[in-house]
TrEMBL record:
The lineage of its organism: Eukaryota, Metazoa, Chordata, Craniata, Vertebrata. InterPro entries: IRAK1BP1, SIMPL/DUF541. This is Interleukin-1 receptor-associated kinase 1 binding protein 1. Signal peptide: none annotated. GO terms for cellular component: cytoplasm; nucleus.
Length: 249
């Protein structure tokens, strides 16, 4: 049986160089080259918490005035209500109350042989002194057939939104002051903020509730509807040496 000839080619290379050289030629040598940039040291930080609590009195007061008349004739009842309604609206105009802050509703119903006509005026005030003046005039000039309710105080969405922003900012300021004092004790300088996170927020009516033995004054009614808000934040600041100088551009 014939045996086929085989040729073997080889070469001598320095120890440890052959395989690496072949890998480089084939583009398979992926050894990581040392970086020329120096490794950065981890940033020094100071982490603190801050809290704040603020109050906000109501900024809106709603006043309800209703006029009722019951008569045998629906026209007589309507005319009676219209006269007093016109006086109420005239009083509001004299005190520069905007039309968009006033809502008038009317309805008629029958009670046995009488026609009952009622008109209700709902007014929203942002000026509490003006509200008191209007209410005093109506109580003085109109008879008992006109019902003039007690003002109902509340907060607008804008007022509550402002309170929530202010209390959060106040908590962050408290955290910054605390971090500054810590840096002074350590002989360091406070750097830029790295993280700000609000961890807790609460909102509640904090007015003191009083008994109904004595009529409440206007200020007491406003105080009962005061809203409180609290915020707690977590803030991380960069910590810098005091003798460090800023790099020149």
């Amino acid at each position: 049986m014939a045996v086929s000839a085989a040729w073997v080619f080889g070469s001598l290379v320095p120890a440890g160089a052959g395989f690496s050289g072949e890998m480089e030629e084939l583009g398979l040598n992926h050894a990581v080259k040392p970086s020329s940039e120096p490794l950065r040291a981890p940033a020094r930080r100071v982490e603190v918490t801050g809290s704040a609590e603020l109050r906000s009195p109501p900024d809106r007061a709603a006043l309800i005035v209703s006029v009722t008349s019951s008569k045998n004739s629906v026209n007589d009842a309507a005319n009676s209500v219209t006269r007093r309604l016109e006086y109420i609206l005239q009083t509001l105009r004299q005190h520069a109350v905007k039309e968009e802050d006033t809502v008038v509703t009317k309805h008629i119903q029958r009670e046995e042989d009488l026609y009952c006509v009622q008109a209700e005026v709902s007014v929203v005030f942002s000026d509490f002194e003006k509200m008191q003046n209007v209410r005093s005039v109506l109580i003085e000039k109109l008879d008992r057939s006109v019902y003039i309710g007690d003002p109902q105080f509340s907060h607008s969405e804008e007022c509550l939104s402002l309170l929530r922003r202010r209390v959060c900012v106040a908590a962050v300021e408290t955290a910054r002051l605390k971090a500054t004092e810590v840096c002074n004790v350590l002989g360091q300088a406070l750097g830029r903020p790295l993280l700000v996170r609000e961890e807790d927020f609460q909102e509640w009516t904090c007015g003191q509730q009083r008994g109904a033995a004595n009529p409440l004054t206007l200020q007491q009614k406003v105080g009962q509807m005061t809203v409180c808000a609290s915020s707690r934040v977590f803030v991380t600041f960069e910590l810098r040496p005091k003798d460090s100088t800023r790099k020149k551009l």
